[in-house]
Amino acid sequence: MQEIIKVTSLTKQFRNLTAVDDLSFTVQEGDVYGFLGQNGAGKSTTIRMLLTLIAPTKGSMELFGYNLQQHRIEILRQVGAVIEKPDMYGYLSAYENLKLFAKLSGIKYSQQTLMQQLEMVGLAERAHDKVKTFSQGMKQRLGIAVALVHDPKLIILDEPTNGLDPQGIADIRNLILHLSRELKKTVLVSSHLLSEIEQVATRLLIIDKGKKLVEGTSAELFDPSQTIVELDTLNNTACLQLLQQSEWNKALQQQRNHSILLKTSRDQLPHLHKWLVQQNIDVISLQPRHTLEDFFLQVTSGKQYVEAFTD
């Protein structure tokens, strides 16, 4: 399978700030590649370097097997991108915007082709309405239609669901799945909405402060024999102190929303519950969780439970 993106030791410094720090990763043909990190982690900076909007301080980038700096024009002809909120001409209709960007791309097009693009993103019925009347979600979908107008092999979406309502988020999620499954496009999508990425991504990269933390498929990253347990009691502070002094101390993870998180195997949960009862701890809930959000918090936050409960 072809490597669509190969990034090696990529670094970007802005004076005293290292926004991207020795980052390496690969995106395979056909991937929906989830690029995850907290705000300010370096996702957008990396994407801007991939699109040659800013130059790297050091490192190399290859797309479709070619060096990006040496083959910039040929490579970018095969890439479509939406960076944050797409800029459209509000006084033009969706169709007129798409027609204009098709002309700027220098491609041959027909009215039927452009209408098919708008149909794909769910805007055919609003094709001749001015874009200034569109919701943010509709503008995002139009931006994706523009990114697809030259039929690229690679689609790059930077935070495509930012500012959208639940329906808009669902529309973008379904569109990403359509691009991958039906149109066979490779998609790199950055986001901090972990539950959405979990539903579409085939492979994942998590970065923090510009550095790669983990990369792989969900199956590779999540140990099915382990689970995150969220514990709530009537007195979490006292419970935490008892846990720290017991054999369960090694299972403690970071605090979330004033709950206690532990990581253990599922077959240990009855023993944990029995131990809590023996310690006269009034348990409100003991819930196993094993989601991308839990994994993300685990690898980006570290063990901060002591400070979280004692501050």
Automatic annotation (TrEMBL):
Keywords: ATP-binding, Nucleotide-binding, Transport
Superkingdom in the source lineage: Bacteria
InterPro entries referenced in this protein's UniProt entry, alphabetically: AAA+_ATPase (IPR003593), ABC_transporter-like_ATP-bd (IPR003439), ABC_transporter-like_CS (IPR017871), P-loop_NTPase (IPR027417)
Pfam families according to UniProt: ABC_tran
GO function term, MF aspect, one: ATP hydrolysis activity
Domain ABC transporter: 5-234
Listed SUPFAM superfamilies: P-loop containing nucleoside triphosphate hydrolases
SMART domains in UniProt: AAA
Family: Belongs to the ABC transporter superfamily.
The protein's name in its UniProt record: ABC transporter ATP-binding protein
